[in-house]
Structures are given as C-alpha cells and as structure tokens.
Amino acid sequence: MIKNNECVVLITSGNIKYYSKKGYSCIIGEKLSLDISEVSKMSHNLIIAICKLCNNEVNLPYSKYNINYNRGGFYSCKKCSSYKRKKTNIIKYGVDTIFKRDDLREISKKWMSSIEFREKSINTQKEKYGCLYTETEDFRDNISKSIKKIIKEKKENNTYECYLSLPENDKLKKEAMFVKYGNECSFLVPEIKEKIIKTNLERFGHISPFGNNEIQVKIKNSINRSKVDLGTLDLFKVYRRKIRYHTKLIRNKVFEEWDGYDYYDNEYIKDYLNLHRTDNKYPSIDHKISCFYGFLNNLPTTDISDISNICITKRILNCQKGYLNENQFIELNNMFL
Ligand SMILES: [Zn+2]
Description:
The chain is mainly alpha-helical.
C-alpha cells in the first residue's frame, strides 16, 4: 500500500510523451501534482510504501515498489521478504522453498552452474561493490566473524575438530613431506629451513619471528594482560622456582642420557657444550610444555619438571620459544614457510 496517493512529478524529456498521451498539457521542467495511479509504473519518484505484513513505512522509488508488488500481489518490506518469498513459493510451487522439490532443485543447480549465471552474478557484484564481493573488506570481516562464531559454537558443543590437527591429516602431511623431501619434519630439511630463515630475516630481521622484539613484547603483553595480574605474578614465580628446583635435580641425568641432538631442529650440538654458557648455541634444558602454560592451566609442577617433558635445545631456540609450548613453537615456525 502507498501512504500518500498524491505525487509530484517533474516533467522531463524522458516522460513528457507519457503524460501528454494521458491528456496532460505540460512542458519540460514543470511539476505536476498527480494521483499515484496516473504516474508511470517505471517512475523513480519517491513514495512512502507501507508493508502489508508489519505496517513498516519505507521510502522508495515508485518503480521499485511496483517490482515488489508484482511479486506476490502486495508490497512487503525487506525485513518481511523471506516470509513473502515463502508464501509466494507455496502458491507457485506448493513448497515454501524450491529446494524441497527435486525437479526445481535440479533446474536451480543447472542455472547456478551456467556461464550465464556466473557472468550475471559477476556483473551485479561489480555494479554494487566495484569489485567481486569476496574482494571487499565487508566480506573479509563477515567471513572471519562467522568462522569465529562457528568455531566457538563447536568448541562449546565439544564438536570442534581442527582440520589440520586431525591425526589422519597429520599422518598424511608427514607422508607427503617424506616423499617430497625425504624427511617428515620441515625443520630438518635444509632447503626448507633455509627458506624459513630467509623469509623470517626479511620479515622480522631475525631468523625466527620470536627473535623480533616487537613480537616478543606482543606475546608477553597479550599473555600478561589476559591471564595474569600482579598478585598472581608472585605465585607464578613460586611455581617456576619449584620447577627449576626439580629440574636441577635431574639435570645431570638428562644430559647423560641425551643423544646429542637438538630436540627442535635435530642439529648435533653436543660439542657446543665446550662453548661459553651464554653462547647462543650452548645446549640448554627446555620444558616442552612451558612453565607458563603449566601455571595458567594449574598443572602440577612435577608434570612440568618430569623427565618426559624435558628436552635439550640450543640456547637461542630456547629463548625464542619463551612462553610457548613445543607444539605452538613448531607450528609457529612452520607457519612462516
Ligand atoms: Zn514488513
């Protein structure tokens, strides 16, 4: 329904013929006050339409009102459009959505996979956004929001499975790595390692992202801000002291049983024990699950200082790993391939 039937029309070279034919004597530039029923159905004149379903009032061109009206024989606003579509579908096809009918679904599938449909869709998007919708900021925003939402829901329902972390995928990944490079771990393939180092140097000015001061500060700040206030910082120090104490007790045993290889990049580093303790290459003890992670997650200190959680790596890798866990560290390094 249209709220106000009276409408002011500006006579232009485009519509003068139409109104002259209707019996109005008018000149270009003149404004005619007309009843809406007299106005051309294609007119861009703004009117106030009333939604038949919710009585919402909407300003829109008369031409658009007519297109909407002709779909189902009444006007409905955007908000009510899905209801209207269902209603029209029931009248037309006997179902509220065409996907409930196999034949229509087939037709729709064929149409949507046609070149004509693709071209039409691309043109519409370019007209509306100036580029493809997937290239807009809006799209990127929406997609990351909706993915985050889906993951959150799945995590809450305990149905979340990170595709990459599925055991079968991990196996596939390792197999593919082995076939291509003769090694399962990218860290141990010289050409990949070189590439990682090169990219990291370009991006971070350091062989690893964790060597970059900015990133170190960011990681520390995000962990500190989100999980730890000053009071708990003291508790953390106590927690860490306990782990250090227990680790010291088994330190000699760990070194005695050690095969001499760096746990993370598999370099033979036993000879580096002759270097000064502060040398970047000096072998050092690392907790695979970090003290910080253990503290945040209330793990017993004895779990962290357990011999199974201890490995030996070069001092520099240990520093880079910082608060991270073994997996996070390896994953992050792989990420910069
Ligand atoms: Zn409505």
